[in-house]
Amino acid sequence: MEYRQLGNSGLRVSTITLGTMGFGGTGWASPVGHIDVEGARRQIALARDAGVNLIDTADVYSHGLSEEIVGQALGSGREEMLIATKVRFPMSSEPNDAGLSRHHIIKGAEASLRRLGTDHIDLYQVHGWDGQTPLEETLEALDSLVRSGKVRYIGSSNFSAWHLMKALAVSDRRGLARFVSQQIYYSLQARDAESELVPVSIDQGLGILVWSPIAGGLLSGKYRRHGAEAAEGSRHLSGEWDEPPIHDEDKLYDTIELLVEIGSARGVSAAQVALAYTIGKPAVTSVIVGARTEEQLTDDLASAEFVLTDDEVSRLDEVSAEPLRYPYWHQALNVADRLSPADRSLLGRYLS
User: Fold this and answer.
1) Strand 12-14 vs strand 179-185: parallel, antiparallel, or unpaired?
2) Which of 19, 4, 103 is nearest to 297 (CA)?
3) pLDDT tens per residue, the chain (352 residues)?
């Protein structure tokens, strides 16, 4: 297992993170899995043995049950693992029990600490944007948690690039704790993040944690164009799940066929190929894998040791390529003489 610095922080994180949306698996999280405490213990043991040192959860996963299961399953092994959790979404119908106000952030952190059975959260992430709460209020609340020792590092999740830059500017101007990472969707199924979220991470020294790196199972190799291997129980096919959305089915199928081809030639699963691809991308610190079964988790964990060749990466880049949108095509045509490393993370392949 490789360990990478989480952005400009001193924290070292395994390239695979254990995801826990399926821990508990109640309510809207039900399609993801129904893993109880004993199942969680087994998954955590498998992950730990493979070198994983970060577990990612959120207060909203099964309405706090995921956090409770993480805390119970870790038990005395808490100090061997880093814990990341999140705050933003409603935890009750009470009008102040949602968003990124000082009230909700402090209340949410204290509730997460109780459920996790710990005295600190290693990485506390705001789970989404709140355009109705001043960023100053949000960031000052997070800073107070860091200064109190209840939180070690802070991160964002699902922000747009301008949201992120505005938050970083507020932190810098006011001398507040700064986001060290962002958790985003990024996979061969949709590489939107490469336009702005990856470049801003490179430019601002942020780590990237990737959620759903095999696109909710779409890139597992079971979901095929001609139904040769029907994806029985597929969340997308059953209509139970719509994240991530599928905009171009033909490109998705072409990508899956290439994943299966490369995997077959190398003696690994399509999922391992998809995970290795994303692990190898600029600014990516870790990919978050969650599995319904221990067999799936074991296979996903093996991707940490699998490295694609340059030719395989190029073929995957090509089959999953997205159109270069404005102003990026204009930059590639007209200002290529003065591009930064962040710019080149997107435009480099169009210039070669």
Assistant:
1) unpaired
2) 19
3) 999 999 999 999 999 999 999 999 888 788 888 899 999 999 999 999 999 999 999 999 999 999 999 999 999 999 999 999 999 999 999 999 999 999 999 999 999 999 999 999 999 999 999 999 999 999 999 999 999 999 999 999 999 999 999 999 999 999 999 999 999 999 999 999 999 999 999 999 999 999 999 999 999 999 888 764 444 545 555 556 577 899 899 999 999 999 999 999 999 999 999 999 999 999 999 999 999 999 999 999 999 999 999 999 999 999 999 999 999 999 999 999 999 999 999 999 898 7
Q: Which domains does the chain have, with CATH numbers?
A: 3-321 (3.20.20.100), 322-352 (no CATH)
As given in the structure block, the two tokens for residue 148 are 């109190």
124 is catalytic: no
Point out the catalytic residue in the list 61, 185, 186, 328. Answer: 61
How far separated are the first and last CA of the chain, in Å rounded? 32
Sole residue written with tokens 């880049």: 317
